[in-house]
Amino acid sequence: MNILIALLLFVLGLIIGGIVVNNVINQGKSNKKSIEKQAYTDPLTGGKNRHLFMLDLDKLIKKGKKFAICFLDLDGFKQINDTMGHDAGDELLIKLSDTFLQKLPKNACSYRLGGDEFSIVITDIKTTEDITNILDHLREELNVPFVIDNANISLEYSLGVSVFPEDSTSKKDLITYADDAMYYIKEHGKNDYYFHNKVLKAKLENRTKMERELKVAFENKQFGINFQPRISLKEKNKMSLEALLYWNHPVLGEIPSEYFIKQAEEMSLMIKLDEYVLKMACEKLNEIKEAKLIDGLSIAVNISNSHMKRKNFVKNLCDILEKYNISNGEIEIELTDDIDIKNITEYKYMFESLKNSGANIIINNLQVKHEAITLIKTLPIDKIKLVSKYVSKDSQIGKEILKDIIVLAKDLEYKVIVICVDEDRELEYAIRNGVDFVQGNLICKVIKSKDVYEFLNNYKTERKAFDNKIFSLK
Prior knowledge:
Layout: H1 2-40, E1 48-49, H2 50-63, E2 67-74, H3 77-84, H4 86-103, E3 108-114, E4 117-122, H5 128-142, E5 146-148, E6 151-153, E7 157-164, H6 171-187, E8 192-195, H7 198-219, E9 223-232, E10 239-249, E11 253-256, H8 261-266, H9 270-291, E12 297-303, H10 305-308, H11 313-323, E13 331-335, H12 344-356, E14 359-364, H13 373-377, E15 383-387, H14 388-391, H15 396-411, E16 415-419, H16 424-432, E17 437-438, H17 452-457, H18 459-473
Parallel strand pairs: 1-3, 7-8, 10-12, 12-13, 13-14, 14-15, 15-16, 16-17
Antiparallel strand pairs: 2-4, 2-7, 3-4, 5-6, 9-10, 9-17, 10-11
Helix pairs in contact: 3-4, 9-11, 11-12
């Protein structure tokens, strides 16, 4: 009997032990799955994360079948965070991730890489059309505004695509190419997608080469400025010279700024170049004043307003103006970008600081909505600049737009400049609509810095001929 009981207890122990061991194993598996899930899940959106994206790429490359990587970046996301708060920004990211989950087909999977950057991997594809069909459908879905805090948020994005194995069989290259394509479309349109290709690759390689050369150029002081006169139609003793930056390339010669400005901005060189141009303009202005060649002269310097928001940038500009004893609008700070109405307070501070240091302020165009006019009017702006080719076409619509802008500018007590005046009809229309200053090859072509004195010495004679032309066109 004792032997039977002992045997039963032994068997019971084995059963209980097996159950315990099995529970421990299952619990371990469950914990492992939980840990893996946390490792592969984005904590904000609950979707897949960068770590899983990299692992899945390795698996897909090993399979060797065609697939596409798409990199998507939101444009203006920082502005949403700044104006609506980070909670609203987080909610937008969550809703975007849910949109990917619900609207993408089974052969497309999204990952949040971090911040406002996402990736979409598309598998089971045979042709480029298989990819574009998915991305076109996604574009339609993203065109529908997201509702955040009872406000409609229209999403803006840039999306770049690279394809395995056509573009590369290397994970690193595929990621780089998709990223490059994304930044390319960001600069050339937004709210769209762009495929990496050989042409883009060549452009990027040229850009890399240019960036290396730009760095050397700045170190070796290979930059200079030319000037183009800006003539007053109403006051004979008023004239401005626009300072135009160029790169004195050792092989290619003189390269205008429009050919390298984007690369310089990406390298954060434009801030230093802006300050460099301002110093050269101030030096030239003081030389002209000492020579007493002309009264009422000012020099206009182009400044990107995105740079003006950088720490100490406005202070540095003001320090330069004060160092050269600039006063009464002798230097004109000309913004190359449109004014962002949402940051009106910042502009007011920046403009007032520059005005107190003796500068005048010029803005481009006047692309503002009616409700923003009262805000714009609070800024200490002196002039607006318009490009003739956009407003003086034979189309009656173009003429009416120019007339409306000029009337609006006059109501705001701004003077109006029209540039790129290359034909008599453009000058005629500027005269008849009350424009204050004109600039362009019809008036005077760009002149070298060393030739400024000769131009100013002959200005009185040339001004008479110009006045006769104005009289004949009235």
